[in-house]
Amino acid sequence: MGRVGIILAALAATFGASVAQAQAGDLNPQSIDAAFAQDGAAIAERLGVTADAAAHQLRLQADSVAATDALADRYAERLAGIAVLHQPDFAIRILLTGNEPIADTTLVVDGEAVPVRFATGAAATRLALVQAISAHQAEIRASLLTPPGLGVDPRTGELVAVVARRDVEREGATALRDRLATLAGVPVRLRVIDQPELDMSGIAGGTRVTGSVPGDPHRYLCTAGFVVTDGQRTALSTAAHCPDTLSTRDADGQETVLPFVGQWGWGNQDVQVNASPLPLPPTFYTDAARTISRPVTAARARAGMRAGDVVCHRGERTGYSCSEVELTDFAPAGDLCGGACLPTWTTVAGPICKSGDSGSPVFLGTVAYGILKGGSYRADGSCAFWFYMSTDYLPTGWQLLTAPVQPVVPVVAAEHISDLAVNSP
Length: 425
Hints:
The protein is of the alpha+beta class. Among the domains are: 47-124 and 414-423, no CATH class; 126-193, GMP Synthetase, Chain A, domain 3 (2-Layer Sandwich). The protein has 9 helices and 27 strands. The chain has helices at residues 3-15, 19-24, 32-47, 51-63, 65-74, 126-142, 165-171, 173-184, 414-423; strands at 79-85, 91-97, 105-109, 112-122, 149-153, 158-164, 188-193, 198-199, 207-211, 220-224, 227-229, 234-238, 246-249, 255-258, 260-264, 271-275, 283-285, 293-295, 298-299, 310-315, 319-324, 329-331, 346-348, 361-364, 367-377, 383-390, 399-400. Strands 8, 19, 20, 21, 23, 24, 25 and 26 form an 8-stranded mixed sheet that branches.
């Protein structure tokens, strides 16, 4: 085998695909059905349902997004949050401000009736909660011993302050909560975490990548995320806090260098782009052993994220797992974004996260959601939650490389939404 063949083989082993393998037919990325089946099996126990039921719910989750986006627009002036419910059956819950009731209704998604349950009485809209974080973050940070994480919980309509135990012990939980609520002008709930949020330094996102920092003899591990393109080149995305120049190594020790293109790590971004010497396909690994690859067929916008949405990730240190979204608008603690972070990140309820998962792909089925940035840990070292950057914030000029698929239009009964517009206040 010539050097070009060796490089192709190395890339295939590392990235889960190569053009040569695809043409040869020995690479078969998962189908959409198989992807949902795998994700359903991974989340079933956590949701308390069978693997088949979980896979079915994930289909409903994906195909109900357009309908809940429309409902969010309909009730924008009162919207405090939208959440996905998995028990006793799949349903949507919409929390509104004010006390004027809205009658429950149903959406028909993929031929199935999905209950939509309205709750009222929230004290602040989601927009007001996000604006409170932006307006008062600096003042809140300055008033505490440890700068907190701040996020929006769409299930309760509260600003969640992820605070250090020493701040609670110094001030008292009730006094601290009430003071922050008065300062921000919105309801506040405290969540005590024993260790602060940390970037998950290391390299691998779908695949293992390593690099070093000038003057430091250590090699650092990260996870490569999704394949991106500027229209001329293909490249790998990962986290900006990973080393600049990265490389991969195959089982025979053949190293492939991934030249540094650029990094963006301020406010709402933590993303780096490293070029590939050869074209890459739009696939990513999903299993710990890097034997199962999936095509990327689309991206999920951050604006439509709902509490309770299930997402998955595949990190080099922790492998593959799935869990539910908790906070949809989150500003991580400390100065992880070249200073204070903006409330544009999304948190996920563990159950596992470790250093080395930085940059890893966050997804459901064949849809890309984002790139994992960091996590927060309990005193025993277990993962309290992890958080990711939406693919909305890929750097200007770069976009996801996607695989062509036959379009499938979700079966959502639009007349139900129209009826709401006519019959609801």
